[in-house]
Fold this protein.
Amino acid sequence: MNAPAKIQWSERRFGPETQHWLPRNPDGTIDHIPGEDGIPVLGNTLEQLRDYPAFARRMVAKYGRVYRNNSFGGRSVALHGAEANELVMFDREKIFSSEQGWGPVLNLLFPRGLMLMDFEKHRADRKILSVAFKPEPMRHYADSLNEGIRERVASWSGKTFKFYPAIKELTLDLAATSFLGIPFGPEADKVNKAFVDMVQAAIGVVRVPLPFTAMGRGAKGRAYLVDYFARMVPERREGTGEDMFSQICRTRDDDGNYMSVEAIVDHMNFLMMAAHDTITSSITTLVWQLARHPEWQDRLREEMLAVAPAGEGVGHNSLGQLEMTEWAFKEALRLVPPVPSFPRRALRDFEYGGYRIPAGTSVGVSPAYTHMMEEHWPEPERFDPMRFSPEVARERHKYAWVPFGGGAHMCLGLHFAYMQAKIFFHHVVTTHRIVVAEGYAPEWRVLPIPRPKDGLTVTFEPL
C-alpha cells in the first residue's frame, strides 16, 4: 500500500493543522522512474489487494528495487531493501514525513495520533507518552494481561474454533482493561465496538461520513470515544489508577504542564487502534506456525515451564527469560509483518538508487518484501526462530527486519507487544497443543493488516 488515497487536502477536509501539507505532484514529475500505471482509474490497486507480496516481487523483478506505481488513488515511488528502509525510517536528514504519508488514510478518524506527527512535535509527545510504558506500569499491565488471558484460554480449551475472530475479541478486551482500566462488560463492549467501527472506516472506499457507510459508522464511533475520554480526563488526573489512560492523564511535560484534554483523547484513540489489530495479526501468525511445527511447541513449552508452572502465566520480571519464545514471535513477524508497508511523503528532493525523486512524492518502503529477501534470510519461506539467536542476528543488516518500523517512529508499544505475546503463549502452550487438520492451508489477506481469510480453524487440545 505505497500510496494513500487521492484526497484534496484542505482545511475543510482535515482541519487547519494540515495547511502545511504539500500538494500532490502532477503525475508527470516521476515519469523518469521506471514502473507502470496499471488499468485506468484503479491502477494496480486490485493486484496489490489480491496478493501484495507477489505484486512487489513482480515489480522488483521487472523494474528493480526502485519503481513507480499507481494504486490506491495516486502515483507513488516504492523503495525496496534494507538500505531503503534505513534511508526512510532512520531519516537522518528529516526528508520524510510520516504525518503526510499516513495522514490521508488515518487523519479523518485518528487525527494527531503519534504516527501522524513529525520531528519536534513527535519527539515531545512521544516523551510524554513513554511514561506509560516504563517498568512499573508494565508490571501492572502484565498482571492484568495474565488474568484476562488465563480466563479466555480456559474457555477455548478442548474446542475447535476460528482463532482470528476469537483473539481479536480478546485483544480488544485486554486493551480496555490495560489501556483504559475498565473491566470486561457492557462499557468495554461499547468502547470496543466504537474502535472496530473506526478501524473499518479507516480503510473504507467511501471517505465521507455518509449514512449507512463504514465511514459514517466510524465517525459515530469517534464522536462517542471523544466524548467518553474527554469526560473522564479530570477524574483520572485526580485518581491513582495504574492503567495507561490514567498514567497519561497525570503526566506533565518539561514545563510542568499536563497534556491537553484534546491531545490525550487523540493519543488514546490512536494507541488503542495501533495496539489491537497488529497484535491480533501477529499472534494469529505464530499460532498458525506453531500448529504447522509442533516440534517448536515442544521446545517453547520446555523453556516456558522452566520459567513458570503450567497455566500460571509469567510475570513481568520473568519475561526476559523467554528467549526462544521471543525468537519465535520475531520469526512470525518476519514471515507476516503486521504492517506490510510504510508510507511517507518526501518533503524535499532526494536521490536514491540512481534516481532523483522530487519533493511532494508519496514514497513507500516494504517490510513484507525485505523480510523475504534471500540475501538476508536463507530459505525465507521456512519458519526458523533460530534466525534471531544473537550469533545469527548480529551478522544481519539492522534494517532487514522492521515490523515495528525504525528510527524516531519505532513503535512505542513494541515491548508491550512482546509482553502480551509471551504471556499469551505461556498460557496456551504450557496447557495445550495447538492442532490443525491435516493438509489444512488457509489463504491470507495481506492488506491492510494480514489475516487468514477463513479465520484460521484450530483446536486447543488440553495436555
User: Anything to note?
Assistant: The chain has 17 helices and twelve strands. The radius of gyration is 22 Å. The first strand starts at residue 66 and ends at 71. Residues 1-12 have pLDDT under 50 and may be disordered.
